[in-house]
Amino acid sequence: MATKIKTPKGDIVASVIMHAFIILFAITCIIPFILVIASSFTSQASLNQFGYCFWPREFSGAAYKLLFESGTVLPAYGVTLFVTIVGTALSMLVTCACAYAISCKSMYYRGAIAFFIYFTMLFTGGLVPTYLWVTRYLHLSDSLWALILPSLVNAWNLLLMRNFFNGIPEALSESAKIDGANDIRILFSIILPVSLPGIATVGLFYALAYWNEWYKALLYIHTEWKYPLQYLVMQIQKNIQYVQQNAAQAGVVTDGLIPAETVQMATAVVTIGPIVLLYPFLQKYFVQGLTVGSVKG
Questions:
Q1: Whole-angstrom Cα distance, residue 51 to residue 229?
Q2: Closest CA to 213 of 81, 89, 72
Q3: Which of these, 12, 233, 282, 286, has the minimum number of CB atoms within 10 Å of its CB?
Q4: Band (297; pLDDT cuts 50, 70, 90)
Q5: Averaged pLDDT, 56-83
Q6: Structural domain includes residue 19
Q7: Is the residue at 265 inside a domain?
Q8: What was the pLDDT predicted at 296?
Q9: Is 165 contained in some domain?
Q10: What are the CA-CA distances from residue 7 to residues 3, 10, 14, 15, 276 (Å)?
């Protein structure tokens, strides 16, 4: 008969305390999202009178109507989705290829190349040289590629991916070389399939960077339908602030008439929605990708 192992009371108490702490921490993280969503569906007058509530006292969709009535939010969504999907795919392709190259011990000067990549994390060329390089030499002014190519490779993500590849046993690639596979075949057929945690982790970093990008649009994009979502909602908020300031200077009372704060809440809901929904699918790989990639330097 199998003997039943009795769990010590101290371990049970510690487990209960840890689970309670995690539940409370999760609740404290969810509460702000609930307040933001509820406030976005509240009228500005009700928000000014009663403050933030978990349930709208006076339901209103004026904030979302103001965001979408211009007809520019949906095209901006399309631009942001294109930049995020295409940019993340290209960034992962280049990052994985470079990381695999400098992780191979047979590559000459791989240490010097890795140091050169790390050096770019400490010093940059500055704004003016970068602007001239993108607009004058790459001719990407007012092009969606200006939002992708300058951010194609991140040095930190590349080194993180290199560290993850270093944790993969060399016997896998050596056996493939004996069978006649080249480096490209080894990378796509052997290394990448066993590197899903690292790919998910670094891919999430790239996706977040592309999704939240607005500064490059300020510098390089001049056509309205090419504006990404983050830059467009920032412009909408600036326009609302401008109207409020002019109304205040003219002595016009706009209390509750302009949904300034509710638009900010609606903006947060509109902009973070897809990324929040994406994270649960990558969560099981996220922590594993960070911990495994730090085994070797």
A1: 28
A2: 81
A3: 12
A4: very low
A5: 83
A6: no
A7: yes
A8: 44
A9: yes
A10: 13, 8, 11, 11, 38
